[in-house]
Design brief:
The protein is α/β, with parallel strands linked by helices. The protein has 14 helices and 34 strands. The protein is extended.
Length: 675
């Protein structure tokens, strides 16, 4: 409080005393105790009002102690129960949080993690996945810029997420408290099985299997893949203490069309502690959708070779190269790629008017645009004889089919004749064109559909440079080839547009997210944001029915069908305003990844310890862990002198007191007949 404030308060005392004296004692004949009481009330009220006007600031200092956080994260996944360590994990957690010395030194924070990470002090060990990476990321965010220790009560077996060893902050020590039996048991395990979700009818599809062995004796195991009661593949595999892994590559026949369920299993004569990880079910959808794509061109160009390679990456596509005058070869084609058409293509267009094949028209410097205007009416070309470079601009609102922006804006320009290109009718633009970063509002890659016939337009040559640029950006042709495949898939499908489009898989593994996406379009084939979509899911075996609402997202509706058990399900998506519906089915395969383990992953946890300079402890070493934390000198409480300043005007009770004093004075004077 400053000197001026003190002087003003003293002056207030004088003024309050003087006014009280003048009112009650100056020329007063009666100086009874009542007068003294009333004068005292008036003095306090006037002094209180003057203090509020002066508004002195009162400073208060206090000592605040900030403890170092101690994060205790408990693995809440079902693998803890599978290893029969759930009770021990709870016991260890209670021992840590109830230790008075730890509570005095640290600010204890309790968390649980499985697929997600959250604050919790109760655990049910029912998580379907383990994501230690998520725990590391959240702990760094919660205690940002702090030096703190972390105790994780876990078996170290992660089933999803990035490698957690390098995700924890290396400046903060991690102390794993390992739960589960570390005794090595004989165990055969299908560690991983890789297979494509789709295969083509009458082809063979590859299955890659990685097997793992734990034990100290040599053994021989039988690996089989069966479908129903039929064994479709069988191999003998030898293991020893020096050879604990094996990789098998098998080719299975795709003899039947539709969803095919297979069971992979490994067995031996020895008895195992955990036989659940000896079996893995998987499914493949066999499709019969082979198509022939004819590239018709009168010239040679690198675009043709690049396009052929991209299309034939998909094994169900076959590309044939045809000259415009050889229309007899077009009989087997389901899609025509017309490269830089001229008047020489007249027979091709005439033939296709009767055949009704979908077409992909690619223009360039040699295209006869007057002829092209005569043969189609989706785009109108008014071109000059000057050559121009056109850059691409991705249109995110495109919704004919799902396609990602694979970096189109960074691709080299395409060459085409300069002019104006206008759309006629219902044309969807995926890429629009730019000239030296100035938008032309003209299409570069567009799609049209008239009376069930689909046409795609790529307005420029040198797209082979796009494929090379995509490889430079991604070290792979895959993204560009998938982009071309989606265009061909759209053209190879003759089905007319549907108002309700639903995207889903034919099968899912237990524990995976089961997300079904849907789009509803109005009569103009515009995405309808006001649609009301519901889904009814019925278990084919138990007949149990569940209903869900689909939630609107970015240009689509979706639903997460979590909590469904393994089995076959039929479902119907319905739009309530129009009663439009879509029905299909999917299957959830019985596979619990958390039951695959027989031991905690001590080796991985020790890598984490080395990375963070911490120390690993086993479940019978909890006291040693507590002692380590208590004796560590780098975790000290911080004392802070906290100064708070409070203006008197913020004291509401002072106003109340002044009001009470004035009210009391008025009532006493009224009661005593002094008013």
């Amino acid at each position: 409080m400053t000197t001026n404030t003190i002087l003003l308060l003293l002056l207030s005392l004088v003024i309050a005393g003087g006014l009280s004296y003048f009112q009650y004692f100056f020329k007063a004949k009666n100086k009874s105790n009542l007068i003294w009481f009333l004068a005292f009330l008036r003095f306090l009220a006037i002094f209180g009002l003057l203090v509020l006007l002066i508004n002195p600031v009162i400073s208060k200092s206090s000592l605040e102690i900030t403890k170092t956080p101690l994060a205790i994260a408990v693995d809440n996944s079902s693998s803890i129960t599978a290893l029969k360590a759930d009770k021990k994990a709870v016991e260890l957690y209670q021992k840590l949080i109830s230790n008075p010395a730890l509570k005095e030194k640290f600010d204890i924070q309790s968390y649980q993690f499985d697929a997600d990470f959250k604050i919790s002090d109760k655990f049910d060990f029912s998580g379907k996945q383990t994501n230690l990476d998520e725990a590391a990321k959240n702990l760094k965010s919660i205690n940002k810029n702090l030096i703190f220790p972390t105790v994780i009560i876990t078996d170290g077996n992660q089933t999803t997420g990035n490698d957690y060893v390098y995700r924890f902050d290396p400046v903060n020590k991690v102390y794993p408290l390992v739960v589960g039996d570390t005794t090595t048991f004989l165990d055969l395990k299908i560690n991983q099985l890789n297979v494509n979700k789709y295969a083509f009818h009458k082809n063979k599809f590859p299955v890659e299997v990685f097997l793992q062995y734990a034990g100290d004796k040599s053994t021989t195991a039988d690996f089989t893949i069966s479908q129903g009661n039929t064994v479709v593949a069988k191999e003998k595999v030898s293991f020893s203490p020096s050879r604990k892994t094996a990789a098998l590559n098998l080719l299975l026949p795709a003899d039947k069309v539709g969803l095919q369920i297979f069971k992979a299993s490994i067995s031996s004569t020895a008895k195992e502690k955990n036989s659940y990880n000896n079996i893995k079910n998987f499914a493949v959808e066999v499709i019969d959708q082979k198509s022939t794509i004819a590239i018709v061109s009168a010239i040679n160009h690198p675009d043709i070779a690049a396009l052929k390679r991209s299309i034939e990456v998909n094994a169900q596509r076959k590309v044939i190269l045809v000259k415009p005058n050889d229309i007899s070869q077009l009989q087997e084609a389901s899609v025509l790629v017309l490269y830089q058409p001229t008047s020489a293509f007249k027979a091709v267009f005439d033939n296709n008017k009767q055949a009704g094949r979908n077409t992909f028209i690619i223009t360039g410097n040699n295209t006869d645009f007057n002829f092209l205007n005569q043969q189609q009416n989706n785009l109108v070309f008014k071109m000059s004889g000057q050559i121009e470079d056109y850059l691409s601009e991705f249109q995110s609102q495109f919704n004919l089919f799902a396609v990602d922006n694979i970096g189109f804006e960074n691709f080299p320009p395409l060459q085409n004749l300069f002019g104006t290109i206008s759309t006629n009718g219902n044309v969807s633009v995926l890429l629009s064109s730019k000239i030296r970063n100035v938008s032309t509002n003209a299409p570069l890659l567009a799609f049209a559909e008239n009376q069930g016939k689909r046409t795609a337009f790529l307005l420029g040559e040198n797209s082979w440079k796009w494929r090379l640029q995509s490889h430079i950006d991604n070290q792979s042709f895959e993204k560009y080839d998938v982009f071309i495949d989606k265009i061909i898939q759209y053209l190879a499908t003759s089905t007319s547009k549907k108002s309700l489009v639903v995207a889903h898989e034919s099968f899912y593994n237990s524990g995976e997210e089961i997300i079904i996406n849907a789009q509803y379009f109005n009569k103009n084939y515009e995405f309808d944001e006001k649609a009301r979509l519901t889904i009814t899911v019925k278990n084919a075996e138990t007949k149990q029915v569940k209903n869900y609402d689909l939630l609107k997202g970015n240009n689509s509706f979706s639903v997460n069908l979590e909590g469904l058990t393994a089995g076959k399900y039929n479902f119907t998506v319905k739009e309530l305003n129009s009663n439009t519906s879509y029905s299909s089915h999917f299957e959830i395969l019985d596979f619990d990844i958390e039951k695959q383990f027989v031991n905690p992953d001590v080796a991985k946890l020790k890598q984490l310890v080395l990375q963070t300079n911490g120390k690993a402890f086993f479940e019978d070493q909890a006291d040693d862990l507590i002692q380590e934390l208590l004796e560590s000198k780098e975790y000290k409480s911080i004392e802070k002198n906290v100064s708070t300043k409070t203006p008197i005007i913020d004291w509401v009770w002072l106003l109340v007191l002044i009001a009470v004093l004035l009210t009391t004075e008025w009532f006493v004077r009224k009661y005593s007949g002094l008013l």
